[in-house]
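As a warm-up, study this chain.
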Amino acid sequence: MTPGDFQQVLYCLPAGMVIGCFHFGGLWLTIRWLAGARAWGVKFAAGFVLRSFVTLAAVFMVSDGQWIGMTACLAGIWIMRKICIFTLQPKAVGHTKGSRT
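Now compare it with the structure written out below.
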């Protein structure tokens, strides 16, 4: 790994986290928006296509088409996925450790 590759990883990893925040935040907003919507399938598909297009275009532009940058972006997206799952999951109500209800 050359110093230029290392700099690209240091640039693409946080950029991938921002891209992942956009992608999974947009997914969360889409799901919340579809709760009572009509024609939810069409709206979900449109949101998926838009999010996927923007995500893939951003990864390609940030990484400059280099596989090392794309891998770093993918790692950033994966990290943001884990963060979003941890922070946005519903909290259990009324259940504590050791309770028998």
